[in-house]
């Protein structure tokens, strides 16, 4: 660089420009969580860069291998993005890469895999009923007292009456995985969390806590009860899960979990046990059986095809 003044005096100096060839670090801890049957929130930890992260690129890859960019997030913005164009029941993997102002781009982070639910209910509308649900049987309402997330949950209370509501699924499925968060306040009998039925309402199976307090599964189609060795304690939230594959003509899959740990049944599922020939078409919230006494809350109910 040479500088001069009006008198003709001049001076020079050397300027060294160091190019930036180093990309940002790879974004870590990418997660994807469904927010409806067709949308999800993707989150990740921020990257670092010697100068600064300019942007993050979030991509979605479907089961055919087709990759789409769903969001470009500024480097100084919160590290979350929304996919609002999912398909119920579809499986996606989400990746995030970081870039800097010099155009350097990091490798993509490890993908977060998500199966879009075919039913998602967090009760945040504050109501329970048509068009998604049938009109609830008295005793099943929404509440704001015991809530797992958000501001609302379902309340299931009975001194002998059935308390339930059914949701029709978008289509029928051979296999389904259903989960929910439950909070049992009191009970003196068995108490049902949710059931799966055929599209016409035939009972297939349901998940419940039995009279002695253990997580249990009733195979209604096959007329078999599976009691676990794991209790469902009162006074705290638990995530409970029922996974089933009806697999007509072959060995079925039927298992349950609590707090992300599969339970063991005292009567194991046998190789000859059946779940019938009907496909799954409904999810029932609550308990359809009369003569039971309980008070509990249910929140964040999800059904997806990850069991298939």
Give an account of the 3D structure.
- With 308 residues, the protein is an all-beta fold.
- The chain contains no helices and 23 strands.
- The strands form five sheets. Strands 10, 11, 12, 14, 19, 20, 21 and 23 form an eight-stranded antiparallel β-sheet that branches.
- Strand 20 (253-258) and strand 21 (261-262) form a beta hairpin.
- It is elongated, with a radius of gyration of 26 Å.
- The N and C termini lie far apart (69 Å).
- The mean pLDDT is 94.
Question: Helices, strands, pairings?
Answer:
Elements: E1 2-4, E2 10-12, E3 28-34, E4 40-45, E5 53-61, E6 67-74, E7 80-83, E8 91-100, E9 112-115, E10 119-121, E11 140-143, E12 153-159, E13 163-173, E14 175-187, E15 191-198, E16 203-209, E17 214-219, E18 224-231, E19 237-245, E20 253-258, E21 261-262, E22 280-287, E23 293-304
Antiparallel strand pairs: 1-2, 3-4, 4-7, 5-6, 5-8, 8-9, 10-23, 11-12, 12-23, 13-22, 14-19, 14-23, 15-16, 15-22, 16-17, 17-18, 19-20, 20-21
| Individual helix count | 0
**Low-confidence spans:** none
Averaged pLDDT, please? 94
State the order of secondary-structure elements, H for helix, E for strand: EEEEEEEEEEEEEEEEEEEEEEE
Q: Structural class, from helix and strand content? A: mainly beta
Largest sheet properties: 8 strands, antiparallel
Say how many strands there are: 23
Which geometry do the CA atoms define? Answer: elongated
Radius of gyration: 26 Å
- Indicate the proportion of strand residues: over 45%
Rounded to the nearest angstrom, the distance between the terminal CA atoms is: 69 Å
Helix content: under 10%
